[in-house]
Amino acid sequence: MQDMTSPIARTTPQRRERIGYQLIFASVLLLVAAVLVSLSFGATGITLGALGRVLHAYVYGATDSAGVTEQLVLLGIRLPRTILGAFVGAALAVSGAMMQGLFRNPLADPGIIGVSSGATLAAVITIAFGKTFAAPWMAAFGVYALPFAAFLGGFLTTTLLVLIAGRRGQLMVGTLLLAGIAIGAMAGALTGLIAYASDDRELRDLTLWSLGSLSGASWPKVIAILPFVAVIAIMLPRVVRALNGFLLGEAEAFHLGIDVERMKWLIVVVTAACVGAAVAVAGLVGFVGIVVPHFIRLIAGPDHRIVLPCSALLGGALLLFADVIARLAVKPAELPLGIVMAAIGAPVFLHLVLRRGVGGLE
Amino acid sequence: MGNVVISHEGPCPPHCVRQIPDPATPIDRRRGARELKIEIGSKERVLFKHRPIATLCVAGMLALVSSATVALAQAPVEASRIISIGGDITEILYAIGADKRIVAIDTTSQFPPGALKEKKSVGYMRALSTEGVLSINADLIIASDRAGPPEVVNALKSTSVRYIEIADDFSASSIAGKTRQIAQAVGLDAAGNSLAARIERDFDKLAELRKQIKKPMRVLFVLSTANGRVTVGGSQSSADAILKLAGAENAAAAVSGYKPISDEALVEIKPDAVVTMQRTASGSHAADQLASMRGLSASPAVLLKRIIEMDGLYLIGFGPRAPAAALDLMRWLYPDLPITRTGLHQ
Q1: Which of A137, A169, A329, B84 is deepest in the core (most CB within 10 A)?
Q2: What is the DSSP letter of B318?
Q3: Is B258 part of the contact surface with chain A (CB cutoff 8 Å)?
Q4: Chain B residues touching residue A198 (CB < 8 angstroms)
Q5: Tens digits of per-residue pLDDT, B116-154?
Q6: In chain B, which residues have their Cβ closer than 8 Å to the Cβ of A201?
Q7: Is the pTM value of this prediction over 0.80?
Q8: Domain topology for B82-209
Q9: What is the ipTM of this complex?
Q10: What CATH number was assigned to the domain covering residues B214-333?
Q11: Which residues contact A18 (CB under 8 A, 6 or more apart)?
Q12: Quick check: A203 contacting B, CB < 8 Å?
């Protein structure tokens, strides 16, 4: 946890707490702003000003064709996309913060427990074999075949990892990390093998999927991801104390009276479910899970009472801002979300690191 | 009209416009005027007063205008703002003269070369954006059945914009079929029929010429030579289809689709001729580069200098130019065949 103790560590606890609450407040404002911006901008020139008309038309029914378009764009396209974006950003950032806390390493990625590689493998299988042996699967789930397969793939990989790293009820974090690398490499090899055998079009689909996008956002997807957001919301307060205890080390956490084993399982399962759901609906969107928690730690310190809620709020806001750029940059076409995320996130992150130093390593 | 709601029951909501159904509306015979009162929201307005002579004038004008409108309306429902999603579809639309009405295309529409410069681009056909496509304000979307992602295509189909899906495969008959289908969709049946008939004629002619080939050549299609690795067109690829049309045997039929193969496998293939994609950027010639490849250096193709570069989209795009491309290839492979260019090129 060396570089989690930035200059903030030298301030008094009271002042740190005040900075924390200010950051939560600022994050709420940012998320609200991001939601409004996301609802207001798109390829069609329709702005939030049309909302009054749209709601009126929604209540009274009959409208002209311009009204129908406004209604479709605001309520059918932008609203689910905005909600989904906020959820995905929140899920990825919180998962990242939890993984970094669990592994006591600020570079731990939410994909570290194999969810992303498993989901990618499943997505590749659906894309490449959708017309051959995976056809019944495609027929059964239609449009949602790929998201569902990705979720299942991610979850199965994590289950496998946990089975490897868990002995006699104990989850060995070190084994988890190393086994995660091995399983990730194996999934990567299989993915590469299938990619090798697929044609140009499938390859292109695959590349686009791995760059992430909110383009396919729809109400059913919002509903599908809702339970996972609910799980985060319920679990967050329960894991905060454990994660703060882990900052001191597993043994110390145990002596603080934390049920270490149970908490480890809980964190892994919640992370797997959240990342799986996020990857399923939006493809692979990197960066959020590392940058957002790190940014918060640089400003407010490593207290998870601040880091977790702020990660959720800021993760959602960052993803929404990136998505707005993705849909406006080359309109009427769209950029993959992952490109925008890295393009805006990386310089900001670098700036932060250079300005605030790397804490204890100075 | 804005959001005008017309209803005849209940209290008038704020934006409601309706006639006051008052049977006792006085008809003032002396002045020959009748009032039509309407209710807008909660206010009453007099919409017009009836005057016989003025009415006659207005009626006359209206008749003129409406006859013109009817004439317009009865012309086939002609889309004036078309989005074309799919390279072959754009090519067909240009070929039948509907290009002026296209407002946006996708990035696979590489032919005619200027198309992507003069039309808006909705991006790659498998990564469309619902709002992006809607922002074009089109009245007709003609899209390949490969367009995606599926959620976006479903959403687009659910809007009031006409959406026509064109099935796509590498068969000769499908090109004429989709030409007719696309022409019909844009109300240019005659142009479509003549283009389709010409395509069919060309394919018939190709079939006839193929019968005259005594010994088919074994031809290798090379897609790229990036990093010194040769990617060839195997069976079930568009290259395989065009090679067959040109009366050649695909030397790489053992692999499926476009695959990189090793030098040793190339030695084994020993093609009689090699067809490769033209480089747009000048400089190194693909043909020279291929001739120097270890795996090919002993092949009849290199020894007899039978390596040809062709434009990729022309050769394997499977648009209306497919028969011409096949014939070009055939003439090059079999110079003895009695092939004339007439009737085949546009």
Answers
A1: B84
A2: -
A3: yes
A4: 257
A5: 899 999 999 988 999 999 999 999 999 999 898 888 999
A6: 126, 146
A7: no
A8: Rossmann fold (3.40.50)
A9: 0.75
A10: 3.40.50.1980
A11: none
A12: no
